[in-house]
Amino acid sequence: MATHFGKDPNMKKSNHAELERLNQERKQKLAEAAVRFNLKKAVPAAKDAEGK
After folding, report:
1. Is-contact 8 2, C-beta < 8 A?
2. What gap in Å lies between CA 43 and CA 4, rounded to an integer?
3. Distance (Å, rounded) from C-alpha 33 to C-alpha 27?
4. What is the pLDDT of residues 20-42, one digit of tens each?
5. What are the helix (H) ranges across 1-52?
């Protein structure tokens, strides 16, 4: 319906290379976030193990 009343910003035309680049960036950011999350979870567990 948005196309009837005006331009839909989500319907941009982009080529396959642009989509591949965006997907690679998303995967990289997700991997980096997962590493940070796992490090945050592992550090308190290591400190608890040392204290006991």
Report:
1. yes
2. 54
3. 10
4. 999 999 999 999 999 988 887 76
5. 2-5, 16-51
DSSP for residue 15:
-
Predicted TM-score (pTM) of the model is 0.50
User: How far is it, in rounded angstroms, from Cα 17 to Cα 28?
Assistant: 16
What tokens were used for 12? 């941009």
Q: How far apart are CA 18 and CA 9, in angstroms?
A: 16
Are the C-beta atoms of 33 and 25 separated by less than 8 Å? no
Q: Residues of 8-30 as b/e, b for ≥16 C-beta within 10 angstroms?
A: eeeeeeeeeeeeeeeeeeeeeee
